[in-house]
Amino acid sequence: MKKQVQVKPDVDQTKQMIEFDLVLDKIGHLGRFQVIICIMLSYTGIQASLHAVSSVFYAAKTPYRCNVPPIDNSSFYPNLTETEILNYTIPRNENGNFDRCQRFNVSLESCEPANLACVNQTHEGTMECDHGYHYDTSQYKSTIITEWDLVCDGAIWASVVSSVFMAGMWTGAVISGYLLDFIGRRYTILVMAVGSLISGLCISAVQPFWAFVILRFCVAACSHGAFMSSFVYIIEVTGNSRTAAGVHLHTAFSIAYAVNSLFAYYLRDWRQYYFAISLTPALYIIFHLFIPESPRWHFSNGRIEKGMAEANRFAAGNGIVMTPQDYEDTFVSRPTDRETARNYNCLDLFRPKRMRWVVLNMMFSWMVISMVYYGLSLNAGSLAGDIYLNNALNGILEIIGYFIVQFTMDKYGRRTIMSSFFFIQGFGCLGSAALKEVANGNQAILLASTILAFTGKVFNAGSFGAVYNLTAELFPTVIRGNAVGLGSMAARAGSICSPFIIFLQDRHSWLPATVFGVFGVAGGFFSLAYPETMNRYMPQTIAEAELFYSGKGDFTHTDEEANPFHKEKEVTRL
Fold this sequence. Notes:
This protein starts with a strand and ends with a strand. By secondary structure, the protein is mostly helical. The longest helix has 32 residues, at 443-474. The chain is 60% helix and 6% strand. 49% of the residues are buried.
């Protein structure tokens, strides 16, 4: 007796479609051709990472004070040390530290070479720096801080630049999400990679600060758009190997994160540094010539012949020959929506009843993960120790997190891993903040605080790898690009806030980690509401996704006949 599956009235009819997962069963889910493509596409993760964490170095905190000519002119006062100049000219604040945005109110014009009488006297109050600022260039030859005086009242602009970059990533998610489902995966990646190359090179040469801000917005949109689009492509062509393939695209991101320290170490001028990292997308333009379009995207849009032609390229690359009968065996009957011949957008994600709640939960997860991720990443310069080593260590810790995801997601399930990782990073941040406050100089407690912070970093990175995979698996092919794009848009809301949350540590050192921790724990509870996608077919239509969310039908792919839309099974409408 034929099995009947009931679906909602928004399903208008069924149609015959090729199930690409069944094609992959024949040509291989992760054959050598897919491996080569994954390696080439991982290059988009390298350029995205270099741009995303570049502010750690091009906007690094640089010691400064007021310019006090001629006192700090070594030609006139060759024997004065920097400490003596500070003591003679710079007041101290209530904490006993030098107030580097003020100087003593003395007449510097009355100073004569080698004579310190002009400053070695009773001072009548203080005044703002009227001759600009002096920067310590022993570590960095130049940064945007030193070039545009982003200190004192202008210090907030460094945080604004980082937030504008995050807003650019948000815009890139919107644009690429639309382009993915409109012009396809392959050309979207190319457009974004070229945009990243051009805008990055322009940044290294631009002069006005406002132009720098605008171009950072553009490079964020393009570099992140290329990375996100590559992820969608990889998930679609690797079938039941998508966990490892998707996670290790992020591994490439983390490798570049660590390598960024090498660029910055050898290129201490921020313009030279930015020019070097901006060249990285150029190689992908060559890779583009060898990458076919996603067959799954063609099949989901009814372009059977084009999809088969691209699938044949995958088969040939894996040493497999596909016959017409092989493709005949992969046809299934799928429920279709009333509006099939149209392009979808992000608003369509909120129209189906069950999908709406899944989308809102997904957006919250992305927002929290990104807030914590960039909060911990961009704050590397404030950690004790060498900035280059700390940054590289952060990248290495991320790789550990991604390997943990790879070896646990297919064993314990997406929902369990997501919630567990949220709880660990949340309590790690809260514990780190608490221990740091009560340490009172105790090195053992401070070490424990640091270990908890790094633990939070590991599992936060793992969450980033997991949420990409989970989002791609939860939503159907016809709108998957928009879903990942919407998730990335939600992530930008969190990452835009991160620089300003970090900025609060100057007043309350415990506040940033506490905020990150509270949101992490909340994310853990909300993640328990996700439907499980492990060992499940990826839906191709919205109607099919709604059926999956309802818990009806058998979506497991341990057996080809278990597919609820196998051609021999009948799907009826209420």
